[in-house]
Task: inverse folding
């Protein structure tokens, strides 16, 4: 008898090793993406037949030599009625309380990680967070790995006062309003780490795609399983906190990051679009939507229009609008707090992100783009600046004339400028100190004093900070 007991104990680990299993992101309470093929994947015994049943569909796959399997459910319609999903192989897994709707990943550094409990009206927001059709998946901890990981951590939770306090405020406010507008279930996936640069969020294949980043690509390619990496190591955060989520079907991503890259702002022009494309390639879902938050106003206001880091980082973010499809930017130059890098007003941030999604993904006819610099004409001592995306017209907040413009001559020394609105989409700029102007800047400071907006009824969107020159930036780390 003792012999058979000992033999059974030896066999049990072998038996359990072949049990069908799923990644944590496929679990109870999840929201599956509507109107797209939905990958379901996991692990099992080589050659084992796996059958997944959901919403009247039954799909099968065979476990490969590597112990992995994947199949795709046909496109699903949004459904607010909870259903079960069954995965059957040598064993059976039954997932409960599954909804179908819209899924978004909410990622970045501390401003995306900033919790509901830490924001304006946090207690009231938490108390009112009874939304059974909103589901939250928060990747736990700050973890890294030298190699892409298949099995991450986390679990889906129903949105409630007991689950929302520690979730991303920007992500939650985005998802809550989206749920209100569409009246369908919303899944929000949070993966964030405060203080991180963009390089740790970028894939190895992403670095390989740009010849100028070949050294970083070589460094990441040389990683082994026992390589010691940290939160600043290229690809290390992606490997641990994002790769395990792929290829979970979702509509797109919202992103709030850049503060930690401000001392190498010029390089962000290349790395930011590279990171976005690397995620799209990893998800293998085409050009899924990607919307980001431009850096807010921060630090001390300056008496003179000097060169600083944050404006160039903002510029790099804006340049990405012209480099990739299905992208959008939320300009929040009016939302920041000079003494705190974490603005507490995440509602406005989320609403401006959502305007991009509603217009681009869901067909809403509403103002969603901040005005952007188009071109300029110099006539004598004055410069006329023209803008795109002005909607019903430009508007000066709090004063009659625009504030925040600077102008320079051939010596490239900027001075504050006078300005006035001309029609709905032009601003005339000049200074008595500059007789022959060559360039104009607007809101080109870490914490600019500026007041130019697009106004459409009750909706105002700030003009995107810009410069008309390409003078080298003489700033820290450049």
Result:
């Amino acid at each position: 008898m003792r012999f058979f007991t000992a033999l059974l104990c030896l066999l049990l680990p072998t038996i359990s090793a072949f049990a069908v299993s799923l990644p944590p992101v496929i679990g109870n309470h999840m929201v599956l993406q509507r109107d797209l093929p939905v990958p379901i994947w996991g692990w099992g015994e080589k050659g084992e037949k796996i059958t997944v049943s959901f919403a009247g569909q039954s799909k099968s796959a065979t476990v490969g030599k590597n112990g992995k399997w994947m199949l795709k459910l046909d496109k699903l319609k949004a459904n607010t009625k909870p259903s079960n999903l069954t995965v059957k192989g040598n064993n059976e897994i039954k997932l409960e309380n599954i909804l179908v709707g819209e899924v978004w990943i909410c990622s970045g550094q501390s401003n995306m990680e900033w919790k509901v409990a830490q924001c304006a009206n946090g207690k009231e927001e938490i108390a009112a967070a009874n939304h059974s059709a909103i589901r939250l998946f928060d990747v736990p901890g700050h973890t890294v790995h030298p190699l892409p990981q298949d099995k991450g951590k986390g679990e889906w939770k129903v949105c409630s006062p007991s689950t929302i306090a520690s979730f991303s405020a920007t992500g939650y406010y985005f998802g809550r309003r989206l749920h209100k507008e569409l009246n369908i279930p919303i899944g929000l996936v949070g993966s964030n780490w405060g203080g991180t640069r963009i390089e740790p969020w970028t894939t190895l294949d992403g670095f390989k795609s740009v010849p100028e980043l070949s050294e970083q690509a070589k460094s990441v390619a040389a990683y082994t399983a026992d390589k010691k990496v940290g939160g600043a190591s290229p690809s290390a955060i992606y490997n641990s906190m994002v790769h395990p989520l792929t290829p979970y079907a979702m509509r797109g991503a919202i992103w709030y990051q850049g503060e930690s890259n401000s001392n190498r702002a010029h390089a962000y022009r290349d790395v930011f679009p590279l990171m976005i494309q690397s995620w799209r390639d990893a998800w293998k879902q085409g050009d899924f939507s990607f919307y980001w938050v431009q850096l807010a106003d921060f630090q001390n206001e300056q008496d003179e229009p000097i060169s600083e880091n944050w404006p160039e980082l903002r510029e790099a973010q804006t340049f990405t609008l012209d480099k990739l499809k299905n992208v959008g930017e939320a300009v929040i130059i009016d939302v920041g707090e000079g003494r705190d890098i974490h603005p507490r007003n995440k509602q406005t941030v989320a609403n401006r992100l959502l305007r991009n999604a509603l217009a681009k993904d869901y067909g809403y006819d509403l103002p969603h783009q901040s005005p952007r610099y188009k071109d300029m004409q110099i006539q004598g001592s004055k410069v006329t600046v023209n803008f795109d995306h002005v909607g019903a017209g430009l508007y000066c907040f709090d004063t009659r004339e625009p504030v925040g413009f600077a102008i320079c001559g051939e010596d490239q020394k900027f001075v504050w400028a006078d300005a006035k609105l001309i029609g709905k989409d032009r601003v005339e700029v000049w200074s008595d100190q500059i007789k022959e102007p060559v360039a104009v800047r607007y809101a080109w400071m870490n914490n600019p004093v500026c007041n130019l907006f697009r106004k459409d009824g009750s909706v105002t969107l700030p003009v995107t900070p810009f410069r008309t020159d390409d003078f080298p930036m003489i700033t820290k780390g450049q």
Observations:
- The two ends are 75 Å apart (CA to CA).
